[in-house]
Specification:
The protein is an alpha/beta fold and 248 residues long. Helix content is 39%, strand content 18%. The longest helix is centred in the middle third of the chain and has 19 residues.
């Protein structure tokens, strides 16, 4: 006969001490700004000159003289000036044409644009198993061939397309400052689930660097161009005084 008051015997469990730490390895997310960080200078304006030719480039740039003066006088914002640049050059342009020009630009300008030390760093992050992404204010459509060649992901400023043609407008926001962090989280989810390593070189990268556990300021620049970081305080920022890093 089964006894009704049988007790279930539970195995003894050793208590976990308060000083016992269980480390969960976070996945690496390595984020590189493009223009000026892994390249020697801006790429978008040189791309426009390459794509349209000197004469058409000069004609369109002439339309931007007054907005540029307004920008210098602080009456026009950086985003507004960029919007006018895109509208002046890319309104009505076929996407396929732009993609072909972007591919040709990547092939012809790779060696003169890319910083060797930056390429080595990107390759090292890939070797570590990190998710590696470019995060740039430049149009993603222009940078896609560079991302493909580097074998990394890409987040950039999106251009509005209707019926296979560019409207000359930005879709969403210009991918700089707070928008860089927002775009990263829209793709990868909360950044707190990653160990974020970031590289940047301008004011537009400050928020990205502040969100990273390992942040690098102008690491690949020549010594005389590094300068001092003046963004939000980040105890994990490397090279804040601009003194360390590769000499090339």
């Amino acid at each position: 006969m089964i006894e009704p008051d049988l007790e279930t015997v539970e195995p003894d469990l050793e208590p976990v001490g308060p000083d016992l730490e269980i480390e969960v390895e976070q996945r690496l997310l390595a984020v590189f700004d493009f223009d000026g960080t892994i390249t020697r200078h801006d790429s978008f304006v040189p791309f426009l000159k390459f794509a349209f030719g000197q004469r058409a480039f000069s004609v369109r740039m002439a339309r931007l003289v007054l907005p540029s003066i307004g920008y210098l006088a602080k009456r026009v914002t950086r985003d507004e000036l960029k919007g006018r640049l895109i509208k002046a050059f890319l309104s009505g342009v076929e996407v396929q044409w732009l993609q072909q020009k972007a591919e040709a630009f990547c092939q012809s300008h790779w060696n003169r644009l890319m910083r060797p030390a930056a390429l080595e760093s990107i390759a090292a992050e890939i070797e570590k198993g990190a998710i590696v992404t470019l995060c740039s204010a430049s149009p993603a459509m222009v940078l896609q061939p560079f991302a493909d060649r580097l074998k990394v992901e890409l987040i950039g400023t999106n251009l509005e397309v209707i019926d296979g043609k560019l409207t000359g407008l930005i879709e969403g926001s210009n991918c700089r400052c707070d928008s860089k962090v927002a775009r990263l989280e829209s793709v990868y989810g909360p950044l707190t689930q990653f160990r974020v390593r970031a590289w940047g070189d301008t004011r537009g990268d400050h928020e990205l660097l502040a969100a990273a556990q390992d942040a690098h300021w102008r690491l690949f620049h020549p010594t005389w161009r590094r300068g001092r970081y003046k963004g939000p305080v980040n105890a994990k920022l490397h090279n804040p005084d601009g003194k360390d890093g590769p000499t090339r």
